[in-house]
Each structure stands twice: as C-alpha cells, then as structure tokens.
C-alpha cells in the first residue's frame, strides 16, 4: 500500500515502516489513517472441543492488534455489542445475519477510540494489545444451550465462545499479561458485568486486572405504560439460553427472581474486581427500547422527543429526569462506598462512547469537570486520582455529542 502523496523520501520510509509493523493483522487506510484490523477465527479444534459456535454454527472470531513498547505485555479486550434475541424466531433471523454468524461479518474492523494505536488519540492504552471480540451468540456471551427441532439448529454458546477466545489468546502473550482491562459496549458492556470476575481466572495472579462497561448499565425500569418491558425481555432471554446457572451465585441467592441478576444494577455489588461504569444518564437505547418502547407509545406522542431532545415537552423532560434519577439511585452504593471503582455518567443522548474517537478523546469530546472520558478512565485505571464523575442534568452540558439513530 502506498500513501496518496509522498512529500519526501523520509515520509515515505515512515509510512512503509508503519504498514510493515501492522502486518498481517491490520492496515492503515491512506484516506484518513484509519486503523483496520483483520479477523482471526478461533481454531476449529478448540471450538469443537468446547462446543463454541455462533448461532449458525460458524466459528467464533476476534480482531487482535499487537501491543508494543511499554504496552507489549498489557491486554485490552473489548466485547462487541449488538442487542439480543430472546425467542426462536428472532434468533433464527439473527443467525442469518452478521449478528449471528462470523461468516457474514465484515472481516476488517476499524479500531478507534479506546482501541486506537495513536498516542494522541488514546494516550493510556494505545500501545497495549487490543482485542475486539465479535458478538454472534445473541445473549451477551452468557448462554450455554442448543436448540434442535429436527428442522432448525441454533447454538446458544456465549459462555463457550468467551472461553475459546481466551484460550486462543493465552499462547499469543496474554498468559504473561502484566495489566489487563476487560471492556465492552452495549450488549458487550453488559457482558463485562457478567464476566469481569471470571476474567481474572485466566490471567497471572500478579496481573493488574480491571473492567470497564460502556453503555451496559441496563436498568430494571418500568416503561411509560408501567410495563416491565426490559424485565420481561431479559427473563425470556435467560430462560431460552440457559443463562441463570451462570449468573453470580451470591446475587441469585439474594433475589426472589434470580434471573434479575442479568441486570447490572443487581449484579454490580457482588463484583469484586475494580470496575468502571461509563454510561449516559439518558442512554438512547434504553430511552427508545426500555423507557418508551413502541408498544408503550402506540399513538406516537413521543416521536418528536425520541429523535430530538429539544422537542420534548415539559412532561417528557420530567419523565427523562426521573429515568436519570433512577439510574443514579441504582448506582448510589457504588458511588459512595467503593474507592477502587470509577464512574463517568454524563447527560448526553448517546449510546456507547468509548469506541468512537469523537466521544472518547478529541478537542470537542464530552467532558465532566473539564475531563474527557479517556482521561477519566485512564486516571481510574492507573490510580492517578479518584474518578467518579456525574454530570448535571440535561440540558446543562454544552460538550455533548447527542448520537441519536
């Protein structure tokens, strides 16, 4: 690959060296210097022994970009997000898409934000080994079951996919990790709550291990019609994919309905590994699918507000502020009593902020107390200072990137 314009021989040499250092896992796009990382399939022998398959039976996959320099023995693993399927018809549909089959996924992924290899864009993790774990099980890497009615076959093997990928990474250097961070976005952010403590078991006892969930703090909240939309959805998901026995046993023993431990607000207090919660207080996914799902707004009274916060009327703002208050209440104990944990709860209408460069670390990135998300996470991971940032209520934040689909 050649750069579009060579200003002098020195620049040409630098470009060539960067590209050679990247091979065979990645390339840098000459158009905008994007880091593209190639897919790695888990070895068929490993997957077969464990029974680790995507919904359609394809092999699990990840993207690895090697660390270098001082970060050569540090590892950052990022769970991909992408919703869930909680019944056979929706899982069958998902198995025929990129969300349920690595055969149908893009084979190259852009690494930006927390996955960037540029020190000026990702100052604390740029030279770590960075891994994006592809999502193809439909249950936040949490299930272990199979559906076979003689006509259709579905593998619900998120637990096995997680194990197979870790086993594949250990001989590639992760077995000697000094520092490690398990992260994830959306459904992948929820997976971090479910697998954080388990992650430690695969790493050296001397390693510094921490976890970061981005937009994964899904609330057990009634919708505007007072229905438990998210609770019902997750209950069906837990039953379908055989998840309950893998939930935190201390959590399940404490609740009358053990499947509720799939919700982070109930599981969080039992997680022993240092943890960072990154979330919007007005998370767009939860706003659109949990608080105001189409089933609760049949006449479309919320349509304008859903896609433009400035169009929300006084009552709608009141409801949204109530959602924010409930999120902060669910995090109160985490905020008050834990000194090893971190938090960044801003007031942007967004969902997932760690993988996008604009929201992770840029000149106009979201800030709380003049601190970007990247700075807050870095300060927490390296114990530079206590980092628990909570934004003032909407619409006070002038730094927001409102990312509404």
Shape: globular
| Overall number of strands | 15
Which regions contain 5 or more consecutive residues with pLDDT less than 50?
1-21
Rg is 21 Å
Count of alpha/pi helices: 14
The helicity comes to 25-40%
As a percent range, the share of strand residues is: 15-25%
What does this structure look like?
The chain has 405 residues and is α/β, with parallel strands linked by helices. It has helices at 9-22, 44-50, 88-95, 158-169, 187-200, 229-240, 249-254, 264-267, 284-291, 303-307, 314-330, 332-337, 357-360, 373-381; strands spanning 26-28, 35-41, 61-65, 74-79, 108-111, 129-133, 145-148, 153-156, 179-185, 208-214, 275-280, 342-346, 367-368, 371-372, 388-390. The strands form 3 sheets. Strands 1, 2, 3, 4, 5, 6, 9, 10, 11, 12 and 15 form an 11-stranded mixed sheet that branches. A two-stranded antiparallel sheet has the order 7-8. β13 (367-368) and β14 form a beta hairpin.
Write the layout of secondary structure elements.
Blueprint: H1 9-22, E1 26-28, E2 35-41, H2 44-50, E3 61-65, E4 74-79, H3 88-95, E5 108-111, E6 129-133, E7 145-148, E8 153-156, H4 158-169, E9 179-185, H5 187-200, E10 208-214, H6 229-240, H7 249-254, H8 264-267, E11 275-280, H9 284-291, H10 303-307, H11 314-330, H12 332-337, E12 342-346, H13 357-360, E13 367-368, E14 371-372, H14 373-381, E15 388-390
Parallel strand pairs: 4-6, 4-9, 9-10, 10-11, 11-12, 12-15
Antiparallel strand pairs: 1-2, 2-3, 2-5, 3-6, 7-8, 13-14
């Amino acid at each position: 690959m050649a750069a579009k314009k060579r200003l002098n021989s020195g620049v040409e040499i630098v470009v060539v060296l960067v590209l050679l250092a990247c091979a065979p896992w990645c390339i840098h796009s000459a158009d905008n210097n994007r880091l593209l990382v190639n897919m790695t399939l888990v070895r068929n022998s490993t997957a077969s022994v464990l029974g680790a398959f995507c919904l359609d039976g394809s092999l699990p996959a990840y993207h690895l970009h090697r660390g270098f320099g001082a970060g050569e023995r540090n590892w950052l693993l990022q769970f991909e997000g992408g919703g869930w399927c909680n019944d056979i018809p929706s899982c069958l549909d998902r198995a025929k898409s990129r969300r349920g089959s690595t055969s149908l996924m893009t084979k190259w992924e852009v690494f930006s934000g927390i996955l960037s290899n540029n020190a000026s864009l990702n100052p604390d993790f740029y030279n770590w080994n960075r891994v994006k774990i592809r999502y193809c099980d439909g249950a936040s890497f949490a299930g272990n079951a199979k559906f076979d009615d003689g006509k259709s076959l579905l593998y619900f093997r998120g637990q096995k996919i997680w194990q197979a990928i870790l086993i594949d990474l250990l001989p590639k250097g992760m077995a000697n990790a000094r520092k490690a961070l398990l992260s994830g976005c959306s459904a992948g952010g929820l997976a971090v709550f479910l697998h954080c403590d388990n992650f430690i078991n695969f790493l050296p006892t001397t390693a510094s291990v921490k976890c970061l969930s981005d937009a994964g703090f899904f609330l057990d909240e009634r919708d505007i019609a007072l229905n438990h939309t998210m609770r019902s959805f997750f209950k069906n998901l837990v039953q379908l994919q055989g998840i309950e026995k893998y939930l935190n046993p201390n959590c399940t023993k404490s609740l009358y309905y053990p499947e509720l431990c799939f919700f982070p607000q109930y599981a969080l207090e039992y997680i022993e590994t240092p943890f960072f919660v990154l979330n919007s207080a007005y998370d767009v996914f939860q706003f659109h699918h949990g608080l105001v799902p189409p089933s609760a707004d049949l006449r479309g009274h919320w349509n304008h507000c859903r896609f433009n916060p400035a169009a929300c009327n006084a009552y709608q703002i009141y409801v949204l502020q109530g959602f924010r208050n409930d999120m902060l209440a669910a995090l109160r104990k985490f905020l008050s009593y834990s000194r090893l944990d971190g938090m960044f709860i801003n007031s942007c209408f967004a969902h997932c902020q760690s993988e996008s460069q604009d929201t992770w670390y840029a000149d106009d990135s979201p800030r709380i107390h003049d601190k970007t998300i990247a700075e807050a996470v870095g300060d927490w991971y390296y114990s530079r200072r206590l980092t628990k940032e909570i934004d003032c209520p909407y619409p006070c934040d002038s730094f927001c990137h409102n990312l509404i689909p």
